[in-house]
Structure formats: structure tokens, C-alpha cells
Amino acid sequence: MMNDFVLSTENLNLTYGTFHALKNVDFSVYQNSITALIGPSGCGKSTLLRCFNRMNDLIDDVKITGNIFVNRQNLDDIDIIELRKKVGMVFQRPNPFPFSVYENMVYGLKIHGMDHRRKNHDIVEKCLRAVGLWEDLKDKFHASALSLSEEIKQRLCIARLLTVEPEIILLDEPCSALDPIATMRVEELMIELKKDYTILIVTHNMQQAARVSDYTGFMLLGELIEFGETSQIFTSPQDSKTEGYITGRFG
Amino acid sequence: MIKTKIDKEFIVKIILTTFAFSSLLFLFLIFSFILFEGLPLFLKVGLKKIIFGFKWAPTKGSFGIFPMIISSFFVTFGALIIGAPLGLSCAIYLSEYSGKKMKMFLKPALELLAGIPSVVYGFLGVIYIVPIIRNNFGGAGFSLLATSIILGVMILPTIISISFDAIMSVPKTYREGSFAMGATKWQTIYKVVVPSARSGILASFILGMGRAIGETMAVIMVAGNALKIPTSILDPLRTLTGNIALELAYATGDHRMGLFSTGVVLLVIIMILNYIANFGIKRRVIK
Ligand SMILES: Nc1ncnc2c1ncn2[C@@H]1O[C@H](COP(=O)(O)OP(=O)(O)O)[C@@H](O)[C@H]1O
Ligand SMILES: [Mg+2]
Q: A161 to chain B: which residues are within 8 Å by CB?
């Protein structure tokens, strides 16, 4: 089972105009695991993450070559709407819509035509429970999502994704706007979610990668330098650059 | 030496402050002048008889401006019915769909539209819109419909530029959040972007209404100026502004005061609209 990868790339190259942001990346993410991407700022972690739900499409002047697979299916053969439903994304800054908690939670259901008055409430409850927010928010359905704390906003954004039943969740530095205690709780949530989802997380926080992930990829200047089990990467890195980074010689 | 320098600074400051406050002073003067001229008639004839009176015969002691109040509201809403969907669509196109080049071409064109004198709009209305209405729908052509169309076009720049700013100020992260969930561009626009910008968009509608209700020249030219409440969109009508502009040249005594009372009512309506619009904009900024 551990060898089932749900995301992978083959010889992936990406350029922003003339800037070569990803260089020959071969990368895989295994089912029901947490994979972390680490590396210094600007090395292409977010860019690689955003390849999997085609968020780079929103940027002009992006060229991608090589192959990207989601569930062993070539990305080019997947309808973009279906893809983004299957591969959800959580951003660096929590970005709930400026609507009520409930409106945020049913947004995905509405846009995918899965909106059924009677079932909505159950789905909302289930997903809020999954992120540990049910007790906090069950009486606040009509409160503005913008009035919540940063941690709760970020959890709400995760819950919002779960409503459309994704299989994979991409998280781009999801804790960078949170304090240490909230960070710890979100990390616990990720481990919890791993049972049902496959998780790919970008982080510049090495301790975080070490704490939560099963696999780690180390990137530098657009290249995936090393990829392997987290324990191996952190205890016996094969590449001297990886070692340099995790021992804090640069970064 | 140092002392004279401070004095100069001080004088500059005093002069600038005076100029800055002079605009406020003008506002105050205009306001008190209109009130001063218009209020006595309210006291003499009674507020109710003026605002709810149906008959305007100022030389015979009837000062009812109710039909004009209603007519002003009709043309304002008519203008909004035409201008709001057009203006909002245009703002959405500009902000979400047009490329940089198109934007660079359209924005100045819009500013030009705002700069066309209202008499030109009236003129075009008389030459084109009025005959088209007369020939296709009957009546004289000078009508609520003609006025609404002209005003609807005249308020476009206001609606477009303010809605555009409101839509552009919706954070990119909302759009990304929506796309990342699999929403299409259009779903993102009408379910996230427009609702997020709603207070600014509403403010643009209200400021557009303020512009429509205050417009005079173009309205006189196409409205027909009849003194009754229109019962169909093809009926002629007379607005509050039209009333003042048409009669002020020859009015004296109580008649003149009656026109100032019309002005007071107009001023109050516009103040209310501005207040609502500002309220909307402020709420958006604070949020
Ligand atoms: N939209 C863009 N246009 C041009 N260059 C970009 C764009 N987004 C990112 N880059 C560049 O690509 C490189 C990788 O960016 P990113 O993937 O965001 O890095 P990371 O997430 O590892 O910090 C950076 O050097 C950045 O400047
Ligand atoms: Mg990044």
C-alpha cells in the first residue's frame, strides 16, 4: 500500500517567462501519508505544489514541460474542475470569503451542484467536526468568517475543502500566520486527517516537517535535491546540500 | 532670523487653511442661502401642502410639488434600471476580463463620457431617442422613458468607475480560494467577487442616483415638463430640478420662494443619498 503514489511528476520543468523555476523534478506523494517539501525561500516549493492543482494556470507566461500524474492519470487528461475538487488547497494566509461561516462551508457544495438543503447541514457538521471546530462554531453559523481568529480561519478553510470530498490536500505554509500553540494544534489536525486524505505540505520550518511528515523532499534552486523517508532525510541525508540545510549551514 | 522663518511658515499655513475652509464656507453659504429663501414659504403655506400638494400654480397660491418629487424619483429609478446593469457589467468586464491594452483604451474613453456636457446628451436625446420613442411606441416621445435612457447613460461613468474600484480592491486571495475549490471564472465573479464588493457597488448606484436626481439640462430637453404624475413610461413629466430651471428666470415674490422650496427638498434628498453612499463606502474601508 505504501507504494501507491497518488501524485507524481516526471522530468517536470517550469519556467516563469525566462526564469527556470523547476528543473527536472521527479517527485511522488504516497497515499494516506504526509509529504513535506522543505528548502530555502524561493527554491520552488510553492511552484511545485501549485502544479498539482494547476493554480499556475492563473499566471501569465508560465510554461510547463514533463508529466504530472494524479492517481496515475496524466494531468492533461483530467478536467480542471474535477481536478481541483479532488486536489484541494490551503493557502499561506487563511482566506475565508467575507461571508458567514455557513456560506463559506456550503460554497464548494454550491459550485459543484452538490447543494441539497437537507443534506448540507450534515455535511457542514461532519466537516467542522473533522477539523475540530464543531463545538466552537455550531452556534456561530451566521457570524462573519472574517471575525474569527487566524487559527480558526485556517481550520475553516480546511473544513471548507473537505465538503467537496477531496482525496488530496495541498498546504502551502499553512501555519505561517499562526502562533506556536495554534501551529501545534494544526499539526495534530494534519496527522488526524492523514487517515482519510493524502497530504502534501510546503513548509520552511524544518521542525514542522520533522514532526508531522512521513516523507520529505528537499528543494534548492528549482531542483529536488533529495527525497525520502523523513527519518532518513533528517538523520542520514545522502546529499551534502541536504545535510547543510538541515544542520542550518544555510537557509 | 529663525523667528522670521517661523512667521513665514505660519503665514503659509494660515493662508492654506483659509483656502481649505473657504470651500466649506461656500457650502455653508449656499445651504443657508437656499434655506433662507425657501423656508419662509414652508412656514407660510405649510410643509404638507408643499410636499404632498398636487397642484403647482405658484401665481395663484398653490405650491404643491408632489408630482415633481415623484417624477424625480421615477426618472432616477429609471436611470438606475438602465445604468446599473450596464455599468456593473462594464466594471466587471474591465476588472476581470479585459487585458491591459483594453483597459488603457477604455478607462480614458469613460472619462471622456463623464466630461461630455449635459446639453449634448439632451441634444442627442431630442434628435434620436425622442423620435424613436414617438415613432415606435406612440406619444410625444418626450417622456419618462426618454429621460431614463439619457440619465441611465449619463450615470454610467459614476457607476463604472466606483464599482470598478470596489471590484479591484477585492483581495486576490478570495479569487484564488474560489478557483482552488474548482469554481469557474464566472462562478468566482458572481459568487465571490461581486458579493465581496457589494458595499462599494451599492455606493456607486447611490452616487449615480444622486447624479441622476440632480441633472437638469438634459432632463428639461427630453422630459416634456408636464405638471402631472406620469402614469406610463411614455408620459411626459417635470422633475424638481427642471421646475427650478424652467421658471426661475421670470419668477418673483412667492413664486420665487416656491422654487427655492423646491431646491430645499432637492437638497435634502441629495444629502440623504450621499449620506447612505458614504456610509456604504466607509463600512467597506473599515472592514
Ligand atoms: N508569478 C511568478 N512570476 C515570476 N516568477 C515567479 C512567480 N512566482 C514565483 N516566482 C519565482 O519562482 C521562484 C520560486 O518561487 P516559489 O515557488 O514561490 O518559492 P518558495 O515557495 O519555495 O518560496 C522564486 O524565485 C520566485 O521569485
Ligand atoms: Mg512559497
A: 181
ipTM: 0.92
Chain A residue whose CA is closest to B189 = A111
pLDDT in tens, A207-217: 999 999 999 99
Which residue's CA is the closest to the ligand 1 atom numbered 3? A16
Residue B275's pLDDT is 87
Task: Check whether B123 has a pLDDT greater than 90.
Answer: yes
Q: Which atom of ligand 1 is nearest to the CA of A172?
A: 21
% of chain B residues with pLDDT over 70: 95
Calculate helix-pair angle for B66-92, B253-286, nearest 10 degrees: 30
Is there a single domain that holds both residue B28 and residue B164? Answer: no
What is the separation of C-alpha B260 from the centre of its chain, rounded to a whole number of angstroms?
A: 20
Give the cell for residue B127. Answer: 434628435
pLDDT of B273:
87
Of chain A, the percentage scoring pLDDT greater than 90 comes to 75
* pLDDT (0 to 100) of residue A4: 80
A44 CA: nearest ligand 1 atom? 17
Ligand 1 atom closest to Cα of residue A59: 1
How far does the CA of residue A87 sit from the closest CA of chain B (Å)?
8
Count the neighbouring beta carbons within 10 Å of the beta carbon of residue B84: 22
Secondary structure class of A232 (helix, strand, coil): helix
Compute the nearest-CA separation of A148 from chain B (Å): 14
* Residue A184 CA, ligand 1 centroid: distance in Å: 27
CATH superfamily of A5-246: P-loop containing nucleotide triphosphate hydrolases (3.40.50.300)
What is the number of the ligand closest to the CA of A43?
A: 1
Average pLDDT over all residues of chain A: 91
Question: Cell numbers at residue A86, please?
Answer: 479532488
Residue A23 has pLDDT above 80, yes or no: yes
Q: Which of A84, A98, A146 sits opposite B180 (nearest CB)?
A: A84
The nearest CA of chain B is from the CA of A243 a distance in Å of 34
**Which residues of chain A make contact with B190, given a CB cutoff of 8 A?**
none
- How big is the A-B interface in CB pairs under 8 Å? 64
Does residue B75 contact residue B144 with C-beta atoms inside 8 Å?
Answer: yes
Q: How far is CA B154 from the centre of its chain?
A: 9
In this structure, what CATH number is given to the domain that contains residue B206? 1.10.3720.10
Give the Cβ contact number of residue B13 at 10 Å: 10
**Reported confidence tier of residue A39, pLDDT bands at 50, 70, 90:** very high
% chain A with pLDDT above 70: 98
What is the pTM (predicted TM-score) of this model? 0.86
Number of domains composing chain B:
2
Q: Are A246 and A233 in contact (CB under 8 A)?
A: yes
